[in-house]
Amino acid sequence: MLHSVVVWLLVVAFFGAGLFNAIGTRATQDDFARWGYPRWWCRVTGGLEIVSAALIAHPAGRDAGVALGAIIIAVAFFLPFCPIWPWFSAAKDSEGFNRIGSCWKNESYPRVMPLRPIS
User: Fold this and answer.
1) Among 13, 30, 59, 94, which residue carries the largest CB count within 10 Å?
2) Which among 59, 114, 104 has a CA at the least distance from the CA of 81?
3) Within a 10 A sphere around the Cβ of 23, how many other Cβ atoms?
4) pTM for the whole thing?
5) Are 40 and 24 contacting, i.e. CB atoms less than 8 angstroms apart?
């Protein structure tokens, strides 16, 4: 029972995120451009998320869907920490840094605060 609930929660989460990205509103495209991606990249990401949801929904493709979803999440999480983003030259800002790095530098990307002991 719990397994089925988790599977369907994953399907709904990836499908919802994929649909939102695939629609590609102006705000979504602006966010992707700010992070250093081309404006149309939200549609690629959305398509991959929808494919992941479809694969997870079918037992025969569940492993592939979970793997694809894990890759999508890993790239979204770790890429802001990557100092080099060579694939899109438009991602460079006026100082020659990639926009992802400069977003991190200018703190316009959400920061992860270090854990501190409660005193």
Assistant:
1) 13
2) 104
3) 11
4) 0.68
5) yes
